[in-house]
TrEMBL record:
InterPro entries: BPD_transp_1_N (IPR045621), MetI-like (IPR000515), MetI-like_sf (IPR035906). SUPFAM superfamilies: MetI-like. It comes from the Bacteria. It is found in: Cell membrane. It is a multi-pass membrane protein. Belongs to the binding-protein-dependent transport system permease family. The chain crosses the membrane at residues 30-51, 126-147, 159-182, 224-243, 274-295, 328-351. Keywords: Cell membrane, Membrane, Transmembrane, Transmembrane helix, Transport. Residues 120-347 form the ABC transmembrane type-1 domain. This is ABC transporter permease.
């Protein structure tokens, strides 16, 4: 009878060891990423806690009012934990923040967590629409400028990029409202929806486009899309400036590499070289700039939301700052900062995966 060859013990051990190393090669970067993310969040919590103690605003006095008695004021300090040592206060602050309890907003009288859950989806919706527009147009401008370096196309793309960097975003928003809303009547007014549709669509997800689409009311969906268009274009114009400029610079850098010279010598067209060879090589760089632009839109849409009366977290934060509403300020700051840290960490993870896939 023919005998079946069986793997030796050494081969089996080598196979197990190599599999273990592959698992560790994936786990170690993940653990390192989680540690970096947790450490950054801890630093963010420490900074926001320091803001509460360095601020001239007294939380206890805000809670009870200027005309409260001394005993009432002292009782409020005990209730807020302000009579405890600073390390104890910080640990209590971290514990409440991790549980999603940011306290009571003085401006709205509602829990800050509830206010953030109501306003943050509006900012995410606006920033997402803006980054999609900005990324598509910015990549197209950057590629066109690099492929036609020195021509009028390059000059026009660079002018748009420079204009996007230079123009104040609130001025551009006011100009767009004056032109397209007040004069031409092509766009609806400020806000997220007309009064007709504002109370007829039940807010389920907090995203106006999703809620109006799920409601089956075509008019409400079109109205939500029309209200989103103008502020999204303003933010997209600001985002595409950075994306187009970096795309152009990255492509021009790659055009000087040896592999491009070799491909040209073999008769490959510039279009083929750009899309088949260069774009995969700069994908990590482009992913980074797009993700950072998106994060900056999430945290920097304050002026746009104020100009367009967009009920997002930026406008909520502005109102809280004018009112001296420290729980709302700290809660919104912590959420926006955590979102920025999370996007940055996910971008690093995505770039590392792209690099690993390109090396295979």
């Amino acid at each position: 009878m023919p005998q079946t060859a069986t793997p030796s013990t050494a081969d089996t051990n080598d196979s197990r060891q190599s599999r273990r190393w592959r698992e560790l090669s994936f786990v170690r970067p993940l653990l390192k990423w989680l540690w970096s993310f947790a450490l950054t969040l801890f630093g963010l919590a420490l900074v926001t806690f320091a803001m509460t103690r360095l601020s001239p605003i007294d939380p206890a006095l805000q809670l009870v009012g200027d005309h409260a008695s001394q005993s009432t004021y002292e009782a409020a300090r005990v209730e807020l934990g302000l009579d405890q040592p600073l390390p104890v206060q910080f640990l209590r602050y971290v514990e409440t923040a991790l549980s999603g309890n940011f306290g009571q907003s003085i401006s709205t009288g509602q829990p800050v967590a509830k206010d953030i859950a109501r306003t943050f989806p509006a900012t995410i919706e606006l920033a997402t629409a803006a980054i999609i527009l900005g990324a598509v147009i910015g990549l197209a401008l950057g590629i066109a400028a690099a492929m036609r370096q020195g021509t009028w196309v390059d000059s026009a793309a660079r002018f748009v990029s420079l204009f996007g960097y230079s123009v104040p975003i609130f001025w551009l928003g006011l100009l767009m409202l004056l032109l397209f809303y007040a004069r031409l009547h092509w766009a609806p007014g400020p806000g997220r929806a007309d009064v007709v549709f504002q109370y007829t669509v039940k807010p389920i997800s907090g995203f106006a486009l999703i809620d109006t689409w799920m409601s089956g009311k075509t008019g409400a969906f079109r109205d939500a899309l029309a209200h989103l268009a103008l502020p999204a274009i303003v933010l997209a114009f600001h985002a595409l400036a950075a994306i187009s400029r970096l795309t152009r610079a990255a492509i021009l850098t790659e055009l000087g590499q040896e592999y491009v010279t070799t491909a040209r010598a073999k008769g490959a067209s510039l279009r083929r070289i750009t899309f088949i060879h260069i774009m995969p090589n700069i994908a990590g760089t482009l992913l980074t700039v797009i993700a950072l632009s998106y994060a900056s839109l999430l945290e920097g849409a304050v002026l746009t939301e104020t100009v367009f009366a967009w009920p997002g977290i930026g406008r909520y934060l502005t109102t809280a700052m004018f009112a001296g509403d420290m729980p709302a300020i700290l809660g919104a700051t912590l959420v926006v900062g955590a979102s920025f840290v999370l996007l940055n960490a996910l971008t690093d993870l995505g770039v590392s995966r792209l690099d690993a896939g390109r090396r295979r």
